[in-house]
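stuck on this chain:
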Amino acid sequence: MSIEVVRGRSPLLPDRHPTPDFFVCDIFDAAPKGDMASMEHPIFSLATKADKRIRRYEHGSVFVEIAPSAHGLATVHDRDILIYCISQLMTAMNEGKPISPVVHFKAHDLLKATNRITSGEGYAALRAALERLKGTQISTNIVTGGEETFETFGLIDRAKIVRETRDGRMQEVEVKLSDWVFNAIRQQEVLTLNRGYFRLRKPLERRMYEIARKHCGKKDDWKISLSVLQKKCGSSSTEKEFRRLVGNIVEEDELHSHMPDYSVTLDDDDMVIFRNRGTVPNSSSVDDTKRVEIGGLNPDTYNDARIVAPGWDVYHLEREWRDWITEAPRDPDAAFIGFCKKWQERRGRPS
């Protein structure tokens, strides 16, 4: 495996704003959070130049079709804006405050919170990102907030610059999230991200971290084949090129341990292995400060789960269910079977 790594250079961006007020908004300090659906599925483009391809992703019974505007598809780095908005709303909701799909923020705060440059170039990039988020159209049957959506929609409904400086830089921005994103927030279908995520240079590194955060969670390790990882990343590279790109990230992580929360290796059988560094929050459920304790399930329940979710590891499903649930159900066995049925409807048989 040919590795092209500059050994004297850190793979991380510099920490441009190493101050205690990282991610402090006007009202509250919010930990970065991402919605589970776009961590699970390749919604965002890995490209660094305008990507104007229509992409379709299918996994089991789930499909996602993403269509660009004239500005191109929304990118992995554009996702920072959604992470920022989701984080603000989740913090407000956990504090018992009313929330709205309309999020108002200072552009400078977002740039600092997401480790972006705060020069004119940074503001221009933010404007372009808003245009791509508004223009990218998605058709999918992914369920968020218990709703299965078949319509076409954007990631944001609109973006408005409320105030602009004399030199043309944005000061205050107003973003209206799509119903799809807002439903995920209301149903707390989000996960906390390591703030080191914003220091990852490469879009593929960020995407690999999102996938590991969603699937490995608090487990000691998690494996995925290189071919399935490529599919979940939404990469259009050849198999050989994708192996080289992943190999470079593996080599850099061996040298610098720069990947947040999880180390990453690639074995001779083209299996990518993520190993927990022990830095993931105590709970991988939505509100990391709350964890629902539920007793053991009836042994017969596991047999029923295998019937309604054929092919799936029922113990893996049980871990997913326990991480997802936000309050103790009256009948845990029935609740788990219901979860397995929904899981099967949304994902189909495992590949």
Remarks:
- The chain has a mean pLDDT of 84.
- The radius of gyration is 20 Å.
